[in-house]
Specification:
The protein is mostly helical. The chain contains two helices and no strands.
Length: 82
């Protein structure tokens, strides 16, 4: 595989993952209570505030992972390989 192909794969993986992150945010933004009720049937299992906090933390972690595993290697390959 040539370096230009690897650069393309890294870039598209990053774009697709970022699109999934935006979709996740849009779904939560639209109606997070419906998603909470869909996943947790009992109120005392997990509070809605905790559910929102965990989603926020997971989204931050996912965003950092996308940057670390796709965009930084892409940028490094662009710098090194020209």
């Amino acid at each position: 595989m040539k370096t230009t192909e690897i650069e393309g794969v890294l870039l598209w993986c990053g774009i697709i993952n970022y699109a999934l992150l935006i979709l996740w945010w849009l779904i939560l933004r639209a109606d997070h209570r419906w998603i909470y009720r869909f996943w947790w049937t009992t109120e005392d299992a997990f509070s809605q505030k905790k559910f929102d906090e965990w989603n926020f933390v997971a989204m931050i972690f996912y965003k950092i992972a996308i940057i670390m595993f796709f965009f930084i290697p892409y940028a490094a390959m662009r710098i090194v390989c020209g």
